[in-house]
Design brief:
Order of helices and strands: HHHHHHEEEEEEHEEE
Number of strands: 9
Largest sheet: 5 strands, antiparallel
Strand content: 15-25%
Shape: globular
Structural class: alpha+beta
Distance between the termini: 23 Å
Radius of gyration: 23 Å
CATH topology of the largest domain: Immunoglobulin-like
CATH class of the largest domain: Mainly Beta
CATH architecture of the largest domain: Sandwich
Number of helices: 7
Length: 234
Amino acid sequence: MSDDQQPYDRDDRVLAGEYTLGLLTPEEVSTFEARLVREPELRALYAAWAEDLAGMTDGITEVRPPRHLQNQIETQIFGVTEKPTLMQRLGLGWVSGSLAAAAVAVVIGLNAGLFDPVPRAPNDPAYVAQIAAEDGSLIVQAAYDAENGALFVQRDAGGAADGRALELWLIAGDNAPVSLGVLPEDQIASLTIPEALRAGLDGGVLAISDEPPGGSPTGAPTGAVLAVGAVSPA
């Protein structure tokens, strides 16, 4: 929403609404999220907007279309075709015998996450956030799995300076930042959020600071705040 389309001055309430709706430019988003870290009143405005917009879908009942409807649509478009075997659907039509059984076991194991070398992003996260530096030098995506209290993090850009560490913080309302742990050097990781802090994700802000190895020795950020991002419902 551009200023020339508005019959009124853009105050913080309107700004918070445009941020919640995703109407700001990348530069405006970076400026707004930097203010979120410093201004509790602005965080309250954002939380109110997020709650109001999320409530608009409360009365809508989710309906899953029946399986036969998909089959009917595919038949109308492509005609009647022979159903592929399980091996063909898995792309293993060339495999047979005991090798086929082993191949199926591997595919099932991969789909179930049994052999995953890295954590997997939740399929249905309760909250998400993009924690980003104003200049894009550090970008970390976060997704929270409410079922097990795990916060999936993926570092898309940047990293810790030599001999330093990146520490993740949660800022909930007017409360002081609380450490969620030091981010590992791996690009993808999962952090368990303590039960006492999980409610603070709703309307909260995530921030990353530059700290000595092992994290802040004081329980509060001691280095520069490198990136911030507001937590929003997925």
